[in-house]
Design brief:
- The complex is a heterodimer of chains A (about 260) and B (about 350).
- Chain A has helices spanning about 1-20, 20-50, 55-70, 80-95, 125-130, 135-150, 150-175, 180-210, 215-225, 245-260, and strands spanning about 105, 115, 120-125.
- Chain A is mostly helical.
- Chain A has a 3-stranded mixed β-sheet with strand order 1-3-2, sandwiched between helices.
- Chain B has helices spanning about 30-45, 50-65, 80-105, 110-130, 145-160, 165-180, 195-225, 235-265, 280-295, 300-315, 335-345; strands at about 20-25, 65-70, 70-75, 135, 140-145, 180-185, 185-190, 265, 270-275, 315-320.
- In chain B, α1 packs antiparallel against α2 and α4 (about 110-130) crosses α5 (about 145-160).
- The two termini of chain B are about 15 Å apart.
Chain lengths: ~260, ~350
C-alpha cells in the first residue's frame, strides 16, 4: 500500500518536472505568494514584533540612534526663536497618546531637514528654521509627530529586517548565483515601504494641523522649499524613500481648500 | 585539452604509457533544469519550506548526474529528511542567537565567540556530509578532517591573512588542509601548491577591488556635494562600481586559484587540469547577474547551467593506471547540521567535481 503511494507521488512529481503548463502555473503561484508576503506578510509580521516592544525600550533605541547621528553640533539660533518653535511643538503634541514622550532637539546642521526617532525624539536643523517660518516648521513637526505616533521608526526597521530575511532565504533556496543579486532588489523593495509610511505621516499631519486650526498647505509649501521637485516623478523615483514632493504638496493644499470651503 | 599537454609526470615514467585523458562535460539543459527548478520551488513555497530539502537534493542530483567525467556521471544521494532536521536545528540556533542579541545585548560577544570557535567544526561537518553522499563510478568520496586540524589551519590562516601580504599563504594553508582530507575510493588526495604564484592574482584583485571602491566613493562625494538631499541615482551609482570591482577581483582570484589547486591535486591515479580564464568568468558572472535581475530570478536555472557548462568544459583529468586501484570504503550516515549551518553562513563548500 505504502509503495503505491510513493510511486504515485513520484509519477506526479515526474509529470510536474516535465510539463511546461505546470511551469507556468508554478510561476503564477510563486508570484502570487511573493506578492502576498511582500504586501501583507512582511508588514504584518513587522507590526506584530513592533507591538511587542515597550515604549521604554523604544525610547532607549531612539535615544541611542539619535545620539549616534546628532548632538555634535549645537544649534546657533537665538533662544527666542527656538522657544517659538518649541511652543508650537508642545501645542501640537499635547493630548496625543504618546504626549509624555516627546522631546524636541535643535541641531546646528546647515541643511534643512527634520527627523523623528523611535520613542519621541524629534530633531530640527538650523537650516530648516532659517528657510521656513515658524508656522511652516510646525507643519513639518506635525509630520514628524505622525512618525512617532505610528511608531514608524521601529516598524520600518522590522520591515527591512523581515524583507532582508525573506529575500535572503528565497535567494539561497533558489540557488541564486551571487549575494549581490538579492541585495539590490531588497534595497529597491524597501523604498516602497518607506514611501508608504511617509504618506501615512503626511495624512496624520494634515489631520493634526486641521484639528489645531492650522493650514495643512504650509506643509506642502515648506516641503517644496526644502526639496524642490519637478511636477512629475523622474525615472529614478522608484528608488526614492519619500513620495514625490509635488504630489505631497498637492494633497496638503487640497486638504486646506476643503477645510476652507467648509 | 589534449592528453599530451597534461601535467609533468616525470616522476613516474612507467605510468605514462598507460595515461588516459578523461574529459569532463556538463550535459544538462537549461530548459529541463528550469522546469524541475520551478516545480520544486513552487512545492517548497506551498509547504512553507518543509519540502525545500527534497527540492535542494533533487536540483543537486540533476546537476551532478549531468556532470560527466569520461562519460560517467557523478551521483548525489543525500537523504532529504536528514537535511530537514539539520535545517530545523540551524533555524533554531539562529533564532536563539537573534533572541540573545535582542534581550541581552551584553551577552552578544559570547555568542559571536562561540560561533567563531564552532566555525571549523561547521566547515568540517559540511564537507563530510557532501563527500559522504557524492559518488562516481560507484565509489564514494570521503572527508577525513577533524575539528582540531581545521581549527589549527584556520587560526594560522587568520594570522597570516591579517598582514594582507600574507593572504596567498593564508589561502594555501586552508586549501592544503582541506583538500588533503578528501579521499576517493579509499585513496587520499594530495596537493602541492605554491603560494608565490598566487601573489600576483591577489595583488591585481586587490587593486581592482580598490579601484571600484574608489570610484564609488568619488561618485558619492560628487553626488552629495552641495546638496541637502541625496539624489536617488546615487545608490545604484555607488553600487555599480563597487560590484564591478568585486566581480573583477573575484573572477581573477577564482580562476587562478582554481587552476592552481586543480593542477596541484593528485587523487590516487588521477591528475587534473583546469583552464578557467578570469575574463570568461567575469563576463559569465556579469551576464548571469544581469539576466537574473532582469528576469526577477526566473533565469537562475539558465545561469546555473551556463556556469556548470563552462566549468566542466575547462576541467579535465588524466588517469595513470586504472580504476582498480580504488576501492569502496565503508561509510556511515552523517547528520546535516554542519552543512546547513555552513550554507546559512555563506561558507563556500568545495564540492564541485
Amino acid at each position: 500500500m505504502k509503495t503505491s503511494h510513493v510511486s504515485l507521488w513520484r509519477r506526479c512529481v515526474d509529470w510536474m518536472e516535465r510539463s511546461w503548463l505546470c511551469s507556468l502555473v508554478s510561476c503564477l503561484v510563486l508570484a502570487g505568494l511573493f506578492a502576498m508576503a511582500y504586501f501583507v506578510g512582511v508588514p504584518w509580521a513587522a507590526d506584530l514584533v513592533a507591538s511587542s516592544i515597550s515604549m521604554q525600550q523604544e525610547r532607549e533605541i531612539g535615544r541611542k540612534a539619535a545620539a549616534a547621528r546628532f548632538g555634535k553640533q549645537p544649534s546657533c539660533l537665538p533662544l527666542a526663536r527656538q522657544r517659538e518653535v518649541e511652543t508650537s511643538f508642545q501645542e501640537l503634541s499635547r493630548g496625543l497618546p504618546l504626549a509624555a514622550h516627546y522631546r524636541l532637539v535643535f541641531d546646528g546642521a546647515q541643511y534643512a531637514n527634520a527627523f523623528a526617532f523611535p520613542g519621541g525624539t524629534v530633531i530640527v536643523t538650523d537650516g530648516l528654521l532659517e528657510k521656513c517660518s515658524v508656522d511652516e516648521v510646525a507643519a513639518i513637526l506635525a509630520h514628524e509627530i505622525g512618525h512617532v505616533e505610528h511608531r514608524h521608526g521601529l516598524r520600518q526597521g522590522f520591515r527591512s529586517s523581515a524583507l532582508a530575511l525573506l529575500l535572503g532565504t528565497l535567494a539561497s533556496e533558489m540557488g541564486s548565483v551571487s549575494l549581490s543579486t538579492s541585495g539590490l532588489p531588497g534595497l529597491i523593495a524597501n523604498t516602497r515601504y518607506s514611501r508608504e509610511l511617509e504618506e501615512e505621516a503626511d495624512a496624520f499631519a494634515i489631520a493634526l494641523l486641521l484639528a489645531h486650526k492650522r493650514q495643512p498647505e504650509l506643509l506642502g509649501k515648506c516641503l517644496q522649499r526644502i526639496s524642490p521637485s519637478a511636477d512629475e516623478p523622474g525615472p529614478w523615483h522608484f528608488l526614492s524613500t519619500h513620495p514625490h514632493t509635488a504630489a505631497r504638496a498637492k494633497r496638503a493644499s487640497a486638504a486646506s481648500s476643503t477645510a476652507r470651503a467648509r | 585539452m589534449m592528453a599530451s599537454t597534461v601535467v609533468d609526470a616525470s616522476d613516474e615514467p612507467s605510468e605514462r604509457d598507460t595515461a588516459r585523458h578523461l574529459r569532463a562535460e556538463f550535459r544538462g539543459s537549461a530548459s529541463d533544469y528550469f522546469r524541475i527548478w520551478i516545480a520544486h520551488m513552487c512545492l517548497s513555497a506551498l509547504t512553507l519550506g518543509l519540502y525545500a530539502p527534497w527540492a535542494a537534493v533533487r536540483m543537486k542530483q540533476y546537476l551532478y548526474t549531468h556532470t560527466l567525467l569520461d562519460g560517467e556521471p557523478f551521483r548525489y544521494d543525500a537523504p532529504p529528511f536528514v537535511i530537514l532536521i539539520g535545517r530545523i536545528v540551524t533555524t533554531g540556533f539562529f533564532a536563539v542567537t537573534y533572541g540573545i542579541a535582542w534581550l541581552a545585548p551584553q551577552l552578544q560577544w559570547v555568542v559571536s565567540l562561540s560561533l567563531l570557535l564552532a566555525l571549523p567544526a561547521i566547515v568540517v561537518r559540511a564537507n563530510r556530509f557532501d563527500a559522504r553522499y557524492t559518488a562516481y563510478r560507484n565509489l564514494r568520496f570521503r572527508f577525513a578532517g577533524s575539528y582540531g586540524g581545521a581549527l589549527g589551519s584556520f587560526f594560522g590562516a587568520a594570522l597570516l591573512g591579517c598582514t594582507l601580504v600574507g593572504l596567498p599563504w593564508a589561502y594555501r594553508r586552508v586549501k592544503l588542509y582541506m583538500v588533503r582530507q578528501w579521499s576517493f575510493g579509499g585513496v587520499r588526495a594530495r596537493l602541492s601548491l605554491r603560494a608565490r604564484r598566487l601573489l600576483v592574482p591577489f595583488l591585481i584583485g586587490g587593486m581592482l577591488w580598490g579601484a571600484g571602491a574608489a570610484c564609488a566613493l568619488a561618485l558619492l562625494v560628487w553626488g552629495m556635494h552641495g546638496r541637502e538631499l541625496v539624489p536617488n541615482w546615487v545608490l545604484p551609482g555607488v553600487i555599480l562600481p563597487l560590484y564591478l570591482g568585486h566581480l573583477a577581483a573575484f573572477s581573477i582570484l577564482q580562476a587562478s586559484a582554481a587552476n592552481l589547486v586543480w593542477r596541484g591535486t593528485r587523487l590516487g591515479p588521477l591528475r587534473f587540469r583546469s583552464t578557467l580564464r578570469a575574463r570568461d568568468l567575469a563576463l559569465l558572472y556579469l551576464t548571469n547577474a544581469a539576466a537574473v535581475l532582469a528576469s526577477f530570478g526566473l533565469l537562475i536555472p539558465w545561469a546555473t547551467v551556463r556556469l556548470a557548462r563552462y566549468r566542466a568544459a575547462h576541467l579535465s583529468a588524466t588517469l595513470f593506471g586504472d580504476w582498480s586501484e580504488l576501492s569502496q570504503a565503508e561509510s556511515t550516515p552523517i547528520g546535516a547540521v554542519g552543512s546547513e549551518m555552513a550554507q546559512s553562513l555563506f561558507l563556500e563548500v568545495p564540492v564541485e567535481p
